[in-house]
Structure to design on (302 residues):
């Protein structure tokens, strides 16, 4: 009975979603938001510390760790979902280190326990600017290969990666900062249609029609927090325009498939006036596969 209800919900809802398309998904949409809300000016610029060799120190957040070797290393920047930094972020950082990358878990929330809507404490524009301030700092560090800086994150963290893939967003936020070489998203949403949040009267795009850096979009076919069918449609349209976007859908994966401490979490979303139940299920196999796929993607884009 549950599967039948889900089928009829999807049949109804998919006919109601907004007609988001590459033509409407311009960086200018968010640039205007950055200006109107004062995203960047709401917080001062961050100050970063010199990279250190990783030694299993529990105080690992916002520290740049180097493999136990000599050289100039590519760096993976791991960003959290809209919840607080959690153990799965550290897990990715450690696996990147094992693959020979320098790595850091970057708290884009500036210490706030949650950055989830509707009470987002640090807005998109500031989080993007913080990432570019980080690359500017890294350009002064001989232990980091500034031409191979990568970003990865779950949900919000992965969606930031899409902002970092847009030259238009960069030109507005940080025209003189080094770019990220490539980015990857775990269970990010490519668009929130109008009505997803209170007083939202237009589509919110999180993928952009000027994307020019490699972007990997990983999704779960059981993720009801994002509009998976809509996102795949959008990505395929971008691919037809030769945008450097790749995607993969994991069978049986929900939103937050790597969130061991949120296994079984439940909530509701609202799409076009319809209540959508969301459940998180941790899956170690998919977590390991998605980390490997992401690091392989970064290896490919040197």
């Amino acid at each position: 009975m549950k599967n039948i209800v889900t089928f009829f919900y999807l049949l109804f809802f998919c006919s109601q979603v907004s007609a988001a398309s590459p033509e409407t998904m311009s960086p200018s949409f968010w640039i205007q938001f950055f200006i109107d809300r004062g995203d960047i000016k709401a917080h001062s610029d961050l100050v970063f510390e010199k990279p250190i060799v990783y030694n299993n120190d529990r105080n690992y957040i916002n520290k740049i760790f180097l493999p136990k070797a000599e050289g100039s290393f590519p760096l993976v920047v791991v960003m959290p979902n809209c919840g607080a930094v959690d153990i799965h972020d550290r897990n990715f950082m450690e696996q990147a280190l094992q693959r020979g990358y320098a790595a850091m878990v970057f708290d884009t929330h500036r210490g706030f326990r949650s950055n989830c809507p509707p009470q987002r404490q640090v807005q998109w524009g500031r989080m993007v600017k913080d990432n570019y301030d980080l690359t500017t700092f890294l350009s002064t560090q001989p232990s980091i290969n500034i031409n191979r800086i990568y970003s990865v994150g779950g949900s919000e963290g992965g969606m930031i990666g899409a902002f970092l893939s847009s030259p238009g967003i960069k030109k507005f936020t940080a025209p003189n900062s080094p770019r990220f070489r490539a980015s990857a998203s775990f269970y990010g949403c490519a668009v929130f249609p109008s009505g997803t949040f209170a007083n939202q009267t237009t589509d919110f795009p999180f993928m952009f029609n000027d994307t020019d850096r490699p972007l990997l979009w990983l999704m779960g076919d059981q993720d009801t927090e994002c509009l998976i069918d809509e996102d795949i449609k959008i990505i395929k349209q971008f691919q037809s325009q030769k945008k450097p976007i790749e995607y993969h859908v994991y069978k049986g994966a929900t939103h937050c498939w790597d969130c061991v401490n949120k296994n079984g979490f439940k909530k509701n979303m609202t799409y076009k006036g319809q209540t959508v139940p969301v459940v998180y299920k941790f899956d170690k196999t998919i977590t390991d596969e998605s980390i490997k796929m992401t690091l392989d993607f970064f290896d490919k884009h040197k």
About this structure: The CA atoms of residues 269 and 275 lie 6 Å apart. Residues 284-300 form the longest helix (17 residues).
